[in-house]
């Protein structure tokens, strides 16, 4: 389905104790209620951000959620200066992350993914999530696979499709333009990745 005023682009920013920013981007479609960037931000904060906060190390804080309507440029909203992620555990100097694959339901779309870090060292057991975090990871997976809502307005996670097109403004060039959104078939259980080598 083509992009309409029911569709939103959302960014979720976290920051660690070293001042390093971690950013995830999302697309959502409203399927009940009245289109509102504020409603999406509130729903995201209460469900997705809270679920992520159960997994992140104690050094991670959620600092900003911003949503923009993809058609109505005046409909945007930002939440700032709030904390999530108070779970205990030592964070690694680099970071370990969870990678959720978002599976397409339409083959004209590419598979997508979401990555969340830094995990506490105690939250990882080799290449898998430690037993103590499994419940929290399952909670985040459930939220990502379902709808989120606030005050009667309900939103559904979507996948973006971008098309390479000529740039109408000089200098002549090609650029990617968002052309469509599609409901994914689901979000898979995450894999664990790390930026640093583990040596024993």
Commentary on this structure:
This protein is of the alpha+beta class and 200 residues long. Strand 7 and strand 8 form a beta hairpin. It is globular and about 50 Å long. It has one domain. Strands 1, 2, 3, 4, 9, 10 and 11 form a 7-stranded antiparallel β-sheet that branches. Strands 5, 6, 12 and 13 form a 4-stranded antiparallel β-sheet that branches. A two-stranded antiparallel sheet has the order 7-8. Helix 1 (37-53) runs antiparallel to helix 2. The protein has 2 helices and 13 strands; from the N terminus they run ββαββββββαβββββ.
Helix count from the secondary structure assignment: 2
The tally of strands reads 13
General shape: globular
Order of helices and strands: EEHEEEEEEHEEEEE
Mean pLDDT across residues? 84
Helix content range: 10-25%
How many discrete domains? 1
Main structural class: alpha+beta
Q: Summarize the biggest pleated sheet.
A: 7 strands, antiparallel
Q: Provide the β-strand percentage band.
A: 35-45%
**What Rg is obtained from the alpha carbons, in whole angstroms?**
18 Å
Low-pLDDT residue spans: none
- The end-to-end span amounts to 51 Å
Topology (elements, then pairings):
Blueprint lengths: L6 E9 L5 E12 L4 H17 L7 E9 L6 E5 L15 E8 L8 E6 L6 E2 L2 E2 L1 H15 L2 E3 L2 E14 L7 E9 L3 E2 L3 E4 L6
Antiparallel strand pairs: 1-2, 1-3, 2-10, 3-4, 5-6, 5-12, 5-13, 7-8, 9-10, 10-11
Helix pairs in contact: 1-2
């Amino acid at each position: 389905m083509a992009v309409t005023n029911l569709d939103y682009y959302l960014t979720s920013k976290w920051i660690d104790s070293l001042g390093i920013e971690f950013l995830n981007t999302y697309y959502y479609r409203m399927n009940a209620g009245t289109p509102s960037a504020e409603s999406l931000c509130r729903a995201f904060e209460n469900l997705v951000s809270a679920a992520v906060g159960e997994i992140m190390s104690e050094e991670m804080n959620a600092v900003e959620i911003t949503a923009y309507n993809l058609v109505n440029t005046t409909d945007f909203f930002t939440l700032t200066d709030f904390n999530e992620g108070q779970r205990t555990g030592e964070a690694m100097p680099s970071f370990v992350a969870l990678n959720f694959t978002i599976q397409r339901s339409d083959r004209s779309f590419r598979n997508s993914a979401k990555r969340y870090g830094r995990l506490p060292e105690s939250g990882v057991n080799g290449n898998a999530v430690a037993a103590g975090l499994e419940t929290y990871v399952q909670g985040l997976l459930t939220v990502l696979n379902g709808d989120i809502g606030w005050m009667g307005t309900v939103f559904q996670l979507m996948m973006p499709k971008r098309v390479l097109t000529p740039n109408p403004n000089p200098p002549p060039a090609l650029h990617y333009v968002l052309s469509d959104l599609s409901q994914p078939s689901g979000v898979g259980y995450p894999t664990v990745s790390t930026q640093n080598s583990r040596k024993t």
